[in-house]
Batch of 2 targets.
Target 1
Amino acid sequence: MKPAFSICVYCGSRPGVDSEFAAAATAVGSWIGGHGGQLVYGGGRTGLMGMVAHATLQAGGRVVGIIPKALVEKELAEQRCDELHIVGTMHERKRMMAERADAFLALPGGIGTLEELFEAWTWRQLGYHDKPVGLLNIAGYYDKLFDFLDASVRHQFMSDWQMKLICHGADPAVLLRELVQGAGLSPPPRLDGI
Ligand code: AMP
């Protein structure tokens, strides 16, 4: 059956120190799977990435993992994916992830996550795609990034309209619904009633 929507999730290949990160990753996967959605992600079993995929599968969702050959061992490719694509380069991974998604969501993570988030966001501002982009700000992890971006607007290196191209919040369910609806889709009710 065709998934109701497809969300590309960018997040840490490490778990982070705060248990709130793991809880949020699980909530994201559970929401996607519980609403009949599809997760598109980097295909690994490590860190928050692995947790989102595990929770999506547990909730009955579809998982598409896309991983470069060189990272199959390092990031422990998730063999339970409904589709596991082993690609030649990081560029192929990112292009395929973007093509397969209706919307993008970044969770806490490191420089890989930031790079992917900023690419989705900058491509949106350039009109290369019109898919919603979201940032889940758990435990204030991204507060200082927003301070910096506000400074960038004050210094006139950015405009308010660019900031408005990114949805953000701390509640996974609220943000995911906003992204799916922003993509012109509507999430069906959860089968498990949660
Ligand atoms: P990190 O947030 O650094 O833990 O990385 C999260 C994911 O981003 C991992 O799957 C990395 O393989 C991936 N990643 C690392 N560098 C890049 C990059 N330049 N472009 C896209 N993804 C990357």
Note: The chain has seven helices and seven strands.
Target 2
Amino acid sequence: MIKRAVFPGSFDPITKGHENIIRRALPLFDEIIVAIGLNIEKKGYFRLEDRELWIRTVFADCPKIKVESYSGLTVDFCREVEASYILRGLRTSADFEFERTVGQVNKKLYPAIETVFLLTTPEYTSVNSSIVRDVHKNGGDVGLFIPEGVILPRQ
Ligand code: ADP
């Protein structure tokens, strides 16, 4: 059976932090599905089609990377795509506390799943999508935080 991981998130937009985690996880898995989770109650800042396109552009050189979107439980999506691993990044102790709860609940819901955590590379600790959205809203230079090749629409 192929080692397939799901990397769930909102990717609104993809950042250098996400890219770093995904590239470092490549040797660990045969396939990584970057899965954009949709929340019915929360509309994204960027359009879903754009978010998908940016991820595809960044990983155009990586046949192991697939991009999909899903709604509902992450573990249900993992079952559907036959993934045995969930990949997550850890930046801070706050991330750890949050991830521990989610990881343990996911394991209860779907005992066959394992969550694999990679520690962030120090320079990306403070990079997150909400900061990028804030900088973008206020006309700042987002180029520092997003992967090469991603061009966000003008405000
Ligand atoms: P964000 O927190 O940027 O909104 P998501 O909700 O899309 O990102 O998170 C998807 C995954 O990416 C999570 O596991 C999150 O911990 C991880 N992640 C996000 N930013 C970074 C970063 N700078 N370094 C390492 N992991 C990160």
Note: Strands lie at 4-9, 31-38, 65-71, 85-90, 114-119.
